Amino acid sequence: MAKTQKLLDAVKEGMIEKKAQNIVKIDFKETQNSVTDFFIICDAETDKQVEAIADSIERFVRIQTGEHVLHKEGKENAEWIILDYFDVMVHIFQKKIRETYKLEDLWADAKIENIEIKYSSIEN
């Protein structure tokens, strides 16, 4: 679990670096027939920000854990990018696309945690 927690922390840091919004962690460890242990979901306003968040996550994970993404989907149009780290699946949405699919609503039996982030309105 320590390895997975380190991966989750790196993903979250990568999201925060590029100001991802509405970060949610879904824990599937107690659910049956799950393909992964965790989803981490966030959204962004534009395709460029979605791409930047995905790149930031990959960089943070590689530096902090030495792991590389196993599979990646969605870079072509950057409406919904998925990064597969086996134990952790990362979903980065454009806000309007996330509102359409509502992944969090699909698993009533999973443990869902909202990750509160406060961004300063003043840039350094």
Write a brief structural summary.
Helix content is about 35%, strand content about 25%.
**Termini Cα gap:** 35 Å
Largest sheet: 6 strands, mixed
Percentage of residues in helical conformation: 25-40%
Alpha carbon gyration radius: 14 Å
**CATH architectural designation:** 2-Layer Sandwich
Give the uncertain stretches in residue-range form. Answer: none
Total DSSP helices: 3
The CATH superfamily is known as Beta Polymerase, domain 2
Number of domains: 1
Number of strands: 6
Strand content: 25-35%
Would you state the CATH class? Alpha Beta
The secondary structure category is alpha+beta
State the CATH topology: Beta Polymerase, domain 2
Q: Secondary-structure element sequence? A: HEEHEEEHE
Q: Quick one: overall form?
A: globular
Mean pLDDT: 94
